[in-house]
Amino acid sequence: MSAPGSSLTSGTEIGTELFEQTRTVDRARLVRYAGASGDFNPIHWNERFATEVGLPGVIAHGMLTMGLAGAVLTDWLGDPARLVSYGCRFTRPVVVPDPGEVEVSVRAVVGALDVEAGTARVDLTVSVEGRTVLGKAQALVRLA
Amino acid sequence: MVDLSRVGAVFTGTAPYVISRAKIAEFADTVGATSPLHHVPEAAVEAGYRDVVAPPTFAVVIAQRAESEYIADPASGIDFSRVVHGSESFTYVRPLVAGDVLSTTVHVDSLTERAGISMVTTRTEITDDGGAAVATVVSTLAVRGEAG
């Protein structure tokens, strides 16, 4: 199996852009994520509830946004075992319109290399309409 | 109000979680993880795994289930309707695969309060049925105070 991620090696330069991809999120995906994850907080599916607690509308689960970005990365890497760690902060809510959908952009850049340990830090910029929604989204991955 | 005295508490009362192929496929579809390793057992075996592999954030399902032993307990003082997810991180010894029987230990690592916001940090250690470490999940929740 030859994934594009086999290009990430000890010879890769810091600052190299690995990929930029987009994913779309609509209300149906939120409902499906609620079921798949077991997180049934109504702010992720009930407009009336979301606005009553002061949100601009129904918002995506932070873990869905993190999950979408993580899946883009592991699909790119090829082997999920190459992912050593992955973390982020949830800095801005992603409002999901109805009708319609929102486009989430995921861009990955090599932030650091540790050739001795055989790992790279991949910095993910996850954004909606040009504004980042995850803070310090970083993954430590094994070099190919 | 969040009971700040519970820092250091440990919870082990959640029954083991058995990962199924169906749950992995459902979760993978939802987060857009398209690798055959999540969907096709033969592809996973060929790549050296015992069975299909969970997407990277699947461990949150297991961690949140375990964290609820602490968070949903009224003694924690956490009003879940005032909770916002602050941050999350995963560290893996190996990927989770279908058939894993996983036990959890939840540690309350940090409880702080500033300007009416309580920050609750838990660390969930996930181990397999042989007792070997599989993954660590650290989660921080922000809880708005009554006045907020």
Account of the 3D structure:
The complex is a heterodimer of chains A (144) and B (148). Chain A has 144 residues and is α+β, with helices and mostly antiparallel strands. Chain A has a single domain (4-25, 61-142), classed as Hotdog Thioesterase (Thiol Ester Dehydrase, Chain A, Roll), CATH 3.10.129.10. Chain A is 23% helix and 35% strand. Chain A has 3 helices and 6 strands, in the order βαααβββββ. The two termini of chain A are 13 Å apart. The model of chain A has no long low-confidence stretch (mean pLDDT 96). Chain B is elongated. Chain B has a domain at 4-18 and 57-144: Thiol Ester Dehydrase, Chain A (Roll). Chain B has helices at residues 21-31, 41-46, 59-71; strands at residues 10-11, 17-18, 83-92, 101-114, 117-127, 133-144. Helix content of chain B is 20%, strand content 34%. Chain B is built from 3 helices and 6 strands, in the order ββαααββββ. The longest helix of chain B has 13 residues, at 59-71. In chain B, strand 5 and strand 6 (133-144) form a beta hairpin. The interface between A and B is large, with 36 and 35 residues. Strand 2 (83-90) of chain A pairs antiparallel with strand 3 of chain B.
The CA-CA distance between the termini of chain B, in Å, is: 12 Å
SS summary, helix count of chain B:
3
Q: CATH superfamily of the domain at 4-18 and 57-144 in chain B, please? A: Hotdog Thioesterase
Helix content of chain B: 10-25%
User: How far is it from the N-terminal to the C-terminal residue of chain A, by CA?
Assistant: 13 Å
Name the CATH class of the domain at 4-18 and 57-144 in chain B.
Answer: Alpha Beta
Structural class of chain A: alpha+beta
In round numbers, the mean pLDDT of chain A is 96
Largest interface: A-B, 36 and 35 residues
- Number of beta-strand segments of chain A: 6
Structural class determined from secondary elements of chain B? alpha+beta
Please tell me the total number of domains of chain A.
Answer: 1
Order of helical and strand elements of chain A = EHHHEEEEE
Oligomer, anyone? heterodimer
Can you identify the CATH superfamily of chain A? Hotdog Thioesterase
Cα-atom radius of gyration of chain B: 17 Å
Gyration radius of chain A, to the nearest Å?
17 Å
Low-confidence stretches of chain A are: none
- The ordered string of helix (H) and strand (E) elements of chain B is EEHHHEEEE
Relative strand content of chain A: 35-45%
